[in-house]
Amino acid sequence: MNSDWDKLKHLFKRQEVPAKTTLLQEGQISRTMFFIEKGCLRTWVNNDGKDITTQFFFEGDRVASIESFRTKQPSLYSIESLEPCILQTISQQDFQSALQNLPEIKKELEEHLFRRLLHTQKLFYSYLKNNHLQRYQELIVEHPHIIQRIPQHYIASYLGVTTVHLSRIKGKIAREKK
């Protein structure tokens, strides 16, 4: 956290969670923002009993169902730990108060939301324009840490393919390199 966030340090609570911990369930109202000190979180939606990963978050990232956090409406997705995590958490009430008292934090939040919007738009257009192979290659180039840290079935879910299809894609890439 930077110096502006340091002004809020007294409002944060340290939380350690094991892997596979649901921090927010789709349909619940988000009342906590998570700052990842160590570990990895993912967001996902339920589609007829099948979970579809929508995003991954790592050390230094802030995570909340921000739409729910700000509007007090039910979350559109779940948040889950993929690895054991050390998180710093802040409540919705404390965060809202901080936004009013610290305009720098509000500006940083706006920038964060803009970056998230750009990421979501890029992902959306990639789904429209690119095939599965192209999306995987894009992931390798733009986010190699995801390939290194995330289990294959979550990557497959994120790309919208089965794990078998992802194995075929990886095999094709390996053959092309030879």
Brief synopsis:
This protein is α+β, with helices and mostly antiparallel strands and 178 residues long.
| Strand content bin | 15-25%
Number of helices: 8
SSE order, one letter for each helix or strand:
HEEEEEEHEEHHHHHH
Number of strand elements: 8
User: What percent of residues adopt helix (DSSP H or I)?
Assistant: 40-55%
Q: What average pLDDT do the residues reach?
A: 89
Key features of this structure:
single chain; about 180 residues; alpha+beta; Jelly Rolls; four-stranded antiparallel beta sheet; 8 helices; 8 strands; about 25% strand; elongated; RmlC-like_jellyroll; kinase activity
Describe the structure.
The chain has 178 residues and is of the alpha+beta class. It has a domain at 3-102: Jelly Rolls (Sandwich), CATH 2.60.120. The chain has helices at residues 3-6, 66-71, 92-101, 103-129, 132-142, 144-149, 152-159, 163-177, and strands at residues 13-17, 22-24, 32-38, 41-47, 50-57, 62-63, 78-81, 85-91. It has a four-stranded antiparallel β-sheet with strand order 1-8-3-6. Helix 3 packs across helix 4. The protein starts with a helix and ends with a helix.
Question: What's the layout of helices and strands?
Answer:
Elements (H helix, E strand, L loop, with lengths): L2 H4 L6 E5 L4 E3 L7 E7 L2 E7 L2 E8 L4 E2 L2 H6 L6 E4 L3 E7 H10 L1 H27 L2 H11 L1 H6 L2 H8 L3 H15 L1
Antiparallel strand pairs: 1-8, 2-7, 3-6, 3-8, 4-5, 4-7
